[in-house]
Predict the structure.
Amino acid sequence: MNSRRTSRHLRLWQVLIVAGLFTIWHVTTHPTLLPPLYFDNPNKAAFFFGQPLEVLSRVWIWFSSGSIYEHLWVTLLETVLAFAIGTVSGLVVGLWLALSPTAAALFDPYIKAVNSMPRVILAPIFGVWFGLGMASKVALGVTLVFFIVFFNVYQGVREVSHTVLANARVLGASERQLLRHVYVPSAMSWVFASLHNSVGLAFVGAVVGEYLGSSRGVGYLILQAEGTFDINSVFAGILVLTAFALVLDGIVTLAERRLMLWQPRSGETERI
Amino acid sequence: MQAAPALALEHITVTFVSEGAARFTAIRDATLVVRPGEFVSVVGPTGCGKSTLLNIAAGLLTPSAGSVRVFGEPLAGLNRNSGYLFQTEALLPWRTALDNVTIGLEFRGLAREVAVRQAEGWLLRVGLRGHGHRYPHQLSGGMRKRVALAQTLILDPQIILMDEPFSALDIQTRQLMENELLELWSANRKSVVFITHDLEEAISLSDRVVVLSAGPEARPIGEYEIDLPRPRDVAEIRLTPRFIELHTKIWQTMKQEVLKGYEQQKNQ
Ligand SMILES: Nc1ncnc2c1ncn2[C@@H]1O[C@H](COP(=O)(O)OP(=O)(O)OP(=O)(O)O)[C@@H](O)[C@H]1O
Ligand SMILES: [Mg+2]
């Protein structure tokens, strides 16, 4: 079977499903289009669930007037900063603990404790410490990203093949060269494997932080709309966030392809 | 006075202690001396301690008792005079074939361009020209062995330790590689310790064959000078009467050990 055609069929179906969902949404919420199913008042469905056309036009206004860009930019910046800081610190601490067993043994219970703590709870505290600006959101994202990266680096260093390590030593590597040419690449492969996860969590940290108190960002837009019972804007915000997350995920996938060339992937043959 | 041996393992005993298991003496009182420029093969049944002995020679493992001397000097830490071809996969998977070959030179602080030029020469010599950009997982098992060979030989070690380097290859490729190895070796004679469980391979390559007894407590139980003329072709030399004579003689010693080793592993 032609795989190109299969994937085109797949795309068509995916679009149809979205269109179908929106149609159902529209039909069930548009006042007086259907006899009331559940609510006694015909406007109540729209009040609780919004209306797709309204939601889309809200999105359209945000983009055409340009008012959304400032918020998107803030959320993006928070996500990127949280991701970068969390990854670098996770990498450093992970390498350090994996390479010095004494430190690992000493800190083990604390790491377990901090990791099992529901860290979203920290958001209000960060708000107090770092104010309502970007810093508190970045801090929340960092606490989420750090542990993912940390555990993967830790694992990556421990999984380094014994023979590869011995080989590098025999070939003359100093301790620093071992770190740079053996431990870090091995750890990085695990970090990349968790890239989707950590970018996703950086994003969650940013949005949740904004939602709990801020003056800018997409999370703030949603918070504001909820304050005025503007359900259509809430849904519009969610829609924008979803699209944004998909774009981020796509970028991660591209980065992964570039950086993980050396790893075997299944199905690398080309069909002719 | 005679020059000091390149490698002298004297009265080596190796006892492994692992948690929750009884102590295990893999090698007891083994002595192996390799002269400069000599090609020595070590044969023995599987699991007898051949890799262990080589790890001792490379300085990756410290013997429980006995001494290791390299060109007369007692060995402390890694053996800086030796190159090691491991039995299992040892290439860095995140480096291309070319970068794997250059890495030893880079560790020594050579400029990248110089290292690359030399590495390209070595890839050519092991028959991998044009494969330098591939990652290990994109190479066949035989190709990976050849990259590993280039990776080791580019550093021009005085002592080359090889642990069953060709055992995963089919017989034709294997004979090609054996001939290539002999050619490389005779151009620039270094000491070689070549581990194998294939007696024919051992005889056709070496100046001397050492037979290890079955483990535990393995030790050399026979040494045989191989007086076959060089240069040799590993395929043709197997048909000569002298080869067959040597093979018969060594096999007499080895046979009992192989059977013993097999019985032991079966009964474990
Ligand atoms: N780190 C270790 N701890 C405990 N026992 C070990 C260890 N390494 C090797 N051994 C044991 O020592 C013996 C010799 O192992 P070795 O790897 O040297 O065998 P070998 O002769 O190279 O075998 P093969 O031909 O199959 O490669 C084996 O019985 C093995 O189980
Ligand atoms: Mg072995």
